[in-house]
Structure formats: C-alpha cells, structure tokens
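hey all, quick one before standup. I had two proteins in the batch that finished overnight and I want to keep them in one place so we stop losing track of which output belongs to which input. First protein below, input sequence then structure tokens straight from the run.
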Amino acid sequence: MTIFKFTEARVRDLPLGSGIHRDTDVKGLLCICHKTTKTFACQGDVRRDKRLVRTVRVKIGRTDLVRLSEARIEARRLMATIQSGIDPTAGPESTGITLEEALTEHLAERDLSHATTRNYQYHMDHYLGRLRRRAVADITRQDCRDLMDRVTKRHGKTTGASVMRTVRALVNTARRHDETIGANPVDAIRVPATPKREVGELDVANFWSATEAMSPLMRDLQRTFLLTGARRTSLLGVRRADFDPEAGILTFTHMKTGGAWSFPTGRWLTEVLKTRMEEDEPLNSTWLWPSPGSATGHIIEPKRGGVPSPHALRHHSRTMMIAAGVPYAEGALLLGQRLPGASGGYVHQTHLVEALRPHAQALEDLVLVQSGTTAKCVTE
C-alpha cells in the first residue's frame, strides 16, 4: 500500500493492478486499482465502548465516474458515520444478543448434565473474555480465526477445537433468536476433530498386582472401574443406597446420556462391594467411595498408582467384553451407551438387567482368570 496526496492526475496515472493506495488529506479514502478498473473507497474501524467491532470498507465509485473532490466529500461523511460507531454496511437492525446472553439461552433450552454446563461456562470465563459481551451479529470470521489461533498456541489443538465448538453452538442458538444473523462465522474455520485416544494393551495380571499395593478403598475402586466399564464421574457419584447387595445391582445416576443406568454386578464384584460397605460403615458416609476430607464427601480423582486412567479402563472393559463373547448390543448396554438407529430409542437398559447379567459375569470371569485370581474367588 502506498500513501500520498491524491490529485486527479496522480490517480489517473496509477497503473491497473497496483493494489491499494491511501490519501493523506482525507482519513480513510482509498483508491483501489483492480486488474481492469480503479475505484474510490472508504475504510475505517467501527468502535463501540472503546472496543473494535469490525473494520469496514465501503465502495464510493469508479474513478472515471466520480471526481476526486466528490470522493473526498463522501469519504468524510462515511468516516463520520463509522467513527460514531455505526456500520454503514450493516443490514437490518438486530436484537443485539451477545455471546454471553446466547450461553444463557443455550443452557435454558437444553437439559444438559452438570459437567457439560460447567464446561460451557469454563470456556466462557477462561477463553471467550474478548467476545462474551460482543453482539453475536458483530462476530466475524476473522474474530473466530484469531480466537482459534490464540487458544491453540496457548493451550493446544484439542482445547482450541473444543472452544470453537462451543462458539459454534452458541452462535447457532443466537441465530434462532435473531433472524438477521447470517451464516455462522465458525463454519469458515476448519475445526479439527477430537483425536482418538490411543490405549495400549492391558496386562490384567500386572494391573491386579498394582492395585493390590493400594489402599483397600482405592484397590476396590480401580477394579470396579475395569469390571463395570463405568465412566469416572458415574462411578464416583454412586451412593451406598445405589447398590443393592441382595439383587447384585449397582445403579448409576450420574450419566452422560441422562437418566439412570443399572449394572448387574458379577458374583465376585458383589461380594467386594458388600465388604467395602461394611468396612466403611463407621465413616457414616452416604457415598460408596467416601473421602471425608473431600469437599464433596467422596473421592473426586482416583489415585493412579501406575494403573490406567478410568477412561482407559473403560476402553479395556469394552475390549474384554468382546473377548469374553459378549454381543455388540449387550456390551453397549452394559456400558450405558445408546444403541444406534431408530429402534435403539425403544430399548430401555434398566428393563434388561437380568438379561445382561450373564454378559457381565462373562466379563468378570475373564478378568479374574487373566488376573490369576484363584478359582475359589471366581465361584464365590
């Protein structure tokens, strides 16, 4: 870009295809030399509450049809409008719903889990501070590109992609409340998919040995993760009242898919959980996995002690179900997953506890055999 004082002669002599030139006399006045034509334009920053909303460029006219003096008059008028915080290129007036208000509407419209709600709010508080009070209609593709680049550089690709998915969802919610909002600006960005978690093979004997060295409570917790395939929050949020030792049913109420999930515990696990409840009874806790020093009263983050994470153990549990001969649908239901297709919506897992019990027992039997646990323990 070159900057000089425009005159009729100098503008006329500018070569086609030479790009953008800026006038020194009138702020914002440009002469843009395209391949076949030259046009006057005005460019400026729209600011509201001392914040940059967007940079706009308005075409004034071709240089062979508009005199320089007329272009300067029009540029001054347009710059006065832009500097007053008005976008001369804006379409119909919008509701002005902000990204923060869109989050409130988004959460009100959906029955989301506490963890999902907390995740949305965390993104707003920690990554979207520059956009949270901006009108969604004013958020541009460039704003989204800058946000993606900034979060990715500071926190990594996975976090950057997760934040952009949050913005996409909130903009879509805002669009339902304001029909003047155009296309979702996040759609112009290639948001990478969440990378698949790599989980190595599990040596069950080593896992069993490692858990044996833990405290009795943590030992039983880690083994229960493997024998149920439960998610971390689902298992840690179980209360004593959620386990029926006589029926051998462990009920999870904190589910990602919503609703309750009843798991038929195998014979060995049933005895382990009975013993666990008896040993922890003096603590007078309502939780199955108590932690008196925790703010919640139960374990929040299980100690690893060299064993795989709860999520990795869920992967191993699913894999071992296949090795134990558990069919696909039954394995998915044991993990509390929804079956695909229209018919999947008609299947209610809590009604099939006893039908699923042989499959849960098959998983337990395989784990115990591979762990080297004695046959006596398996049959008890």
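OK second protein, same deal, sequence then tokens:
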Amino acid sequence: MVLETNAASSGTPTRSDRFYARVERLGNALPDPFVIFVVLAVVVIVLSAIVASFGASVAHPTTGEILAVRSLASGEGLVYMLDSMIDNFVGFAPLGLVLAIMLGIGLAERVGLLAVCARRLMVSAPARLATLTTCFVAINMSIASDAAMILLPPLAALVFSEIGRHPVAGFVAGFACAGAGFTANILVVGTDVLYAGLTTEAAKIIDPEASVTPVANWYFNIVSTLVLTVVGAVVTDRVIEPRLGRWQPSGAIETIEEAPNASRGLRNAGLASLAFLALVLAALFWPGSPLRNAEGGLVPSPFLSSIVVVIFLYFVTVGLAYGITTGAIRSSSDVAQKMTQSIADLAPYIVLVFAAAQFIAFFSWSRLGTWLAINGAEGLIAIDFTGFGLLLAYSCLSALLEFLITSGSAKWALEAPVFVPLMMQLGYDPGFIQVPYRVADSSFNILSPTNPYLYVALGFLKRYVPEAGLGTLMAAMLPYALSFFVVWQVLVAIFYFLNLPVGPGVYPMAG
C-alpha cells in the first residue's frame, strides 16, 4: 500500500521525507508575500537610483525613442510614488476583475450549486467511468478557486466509497487533479481573469496599448482539461489504487447530504442557464450587434473585452435560480451576505495586491523593466537561447519557485514584470507567455510544503490512514505532479511548433 511506505509506518525518515522537511522549513522561513513585495519595491527604488546614476538608457523597440532609466530616489521619483500610490492600487487591472467575477462564482458556491453539480456528475457516471469523471470534475472545480482543494477531495472519497471502491483512491485523485490541474478548465474562470490582468500590466512596460483578455489561454485550457483527465485517471487506476488493497469499511458508510429540493434547484438552474445563454447568443449574433467588432468578428470585440461581466451575470443568474428554489436564498439580504462572504475570502489577495501594485508600477515608471527586457532579450539572442528551449527552461524555473512561494497570483505578479517584457522582445505573444508559467505552477502545486491545503488534506486523509504523514501524502502526489508536468510540456510543444492558437486570436508568436 503506497500510503504505508512512509516515515510514520517504518519509524525511520526516508531521504524524500528529509528533503520535503528541508523545503518546508525553507518555505516557512520566507516572509509573507505582502512583505516580499514591499521589500521588492524598496529594491526597485535603490536599483533604479544606482542604474540611473550610470546614465543607463535604451531605445524603445517600436518607436526608437531613447528611454533613460529614471531614479525613484530622486525628487521626481518621490513625488511620483506619493501621488500614484492610491491610483496604483485602485487602478490595478486584476483587482476589479477578480472581485467582480468572484461575486458571481462565490454566490453559486455559497448556495451549494457547485458542490451538488460535482457530486451528481460523479455519482451518475457508470462505475467504469468513475475515475475519469472524478478527475474531470476535480480539474474543472478550479471554478471555485482554492476552495476546490477543500470541497472536492472529501466529496470524491465519499463517492468512491458509495460505489464500493477505495475512498483513499477517490480522495487522492480528487486532491491531485484539483491542485495539479488547477489552471485547466473548460470554462473561463477567476484564474484566467487574474493572470490576464497581471500580464496586461506587465506587457504595458513594452507596449502601452497591450491588452490580454481572460480568454487568452482558453483553447489550450480546454485541450489540457481533456488530456489531463485521462492522465489523472490512468495514474489513479494503474499506480495508486492497485497499491491500496481492498477497501474494508469499518462501520456505516458515510453518505453525502443534499438540500431537500436539490433536484428542483438543479432543474431551475439548468433552465436559467439555457435562457441566459440563449439571450447572450441572440445579442451576439443579432445583425449589426454592437458586441462584435466593426468587421463583424469576435476577435477582438466588445464581447471578449467584457467577458468578465458576462461570466459574473451568468453565475448570479444560475446561483439565484438554485438558491431561491432550495431555500438557501430567502431574501435579498441573503444574496448580499453570501457575496460578502465570498469577498471576505479574498481579503488576503486584496492586501497582497496593494504591495504588488506598487512594485509593478515602480518597476514600470523607473523604466527598469524596459531596460532589462530589451538588454535581456538581446543577450538571449546573442547566445541563441530562444525557441522552445527557452520556454521549457522558464517553466522549470517556475516549478522550482513553486516550492518556496505557493500562491500562483503572488508568483506571477513577481515574475510577469520581468519575463513578459523580456519574452515579448523575442516575439512571443504576451497571452502565450502565461502558458509555460501556468503549467509549471499548477503541476507542482500539490507537492509544495508551503501549500496550506496540503495540511487540510492530510487531516482528512488521517481519517482513513491514521498513521499518514506529510511525506505520505506527497509520495502519493508525486506521480500526478510529474505526469501532468511532462504531458503539459508536450502540449506546449505541440501548440508552439504548429503555431496553434492558445486562445481567440492568441498564437505563440505575436503576429
């Protein structure tokens, strides 16, 4: 049994246990991401003063204008920092987008719609497709953001138990696919909105008119979802479950509770969903629709630029339909309360954004970003380190950083201002530059000892395997992390070499 080959059962810490322990101590020794960005903002101030003192400048790649690095430690820099600090925070592109979309998705989650949909999908699937269904649902549960790693694994364990399979196999598959497959989804979700906003801010260092939409990686994400569903199912059925042995339940089998009117709620939510989609399609394809561009196309178009609002309204619609039917919403105050709870969950993100926004704004105003990007790109060209090799190397770097900084948004806010402008100079589309980062961050999310959800998952796992330790859970996650990362790199290579669109109008190389 794979979950017994650990330090807790043998009494002697293994080499992997000691490695994980060292990584955990190192990660825990790092300050909070908010503090990291404050420190980085100070570093940018000092660095800009040093570089500016040498008269560093660079020619803008498109206009040819000579841009000198500006010192934030100067009088002009001090005035800029004081005058812009609030605007940097309030005007930070990802902030409003993420808050808006999570109001809608949060309402659907709080009334119980997402959990019931997940449970019904898994239970209704034929037994032979249970693993595939579990992995598919787990990957797509990223629609509920980080809550997916809390909601889905126990649900998957209970579903496996109900159909006579080992609940630990369901739990492991649920947690692994919800975590390692976090960036994939057949829908456009909050993660897409968040990354698009951060990438747009970083891309403007080179191109002030740059804009990356939340659907920039949509095609790639759909393909990833389907492929990783199969990979996750194969790992579960061929690697994990055979080593667990036969499940012998002790006592009564737990069941999953649903609201009394859940079926009616799902029916009404489905009808509301169809009505909403019909209305959107009618508005979109009506002759002369203002939601399309001047040529009548969708890429780019007002519809794509406002996709966050459409998603928000959709989830509010289906959430209300389900919540009112089941009694989860009895008055208008219930709607406001559940939305408030969703925003409360984002409080750490809002605090982080304040510091991250200053770092990115300071980096841009000082022109350090432009200076580093252009000189860095020229250096990579000089040593002929471009193409897919660069993408793979960058992905591996992001994977290593995952063991120190778990928050995907914090890490991308850190990396984007440096790597997006640099890789844009090499011809990559800013929307595509997100891809190698996202697949690395997502794959190794389930192995990082600094991931707080690992400990939540471990607590649940101990219900079935009392002697399980952190190394136990990580050993079970390792096959998923490595498989997802390798398969994802193959997908990136296919999209890159065939120059396939990763989203509407977004190709690996900028046109």
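Flagging for whoever picks this up: Residues 2-259+328-497 form one domain. The CA atoms of residues 377 and 423 lie 7 Å apart.
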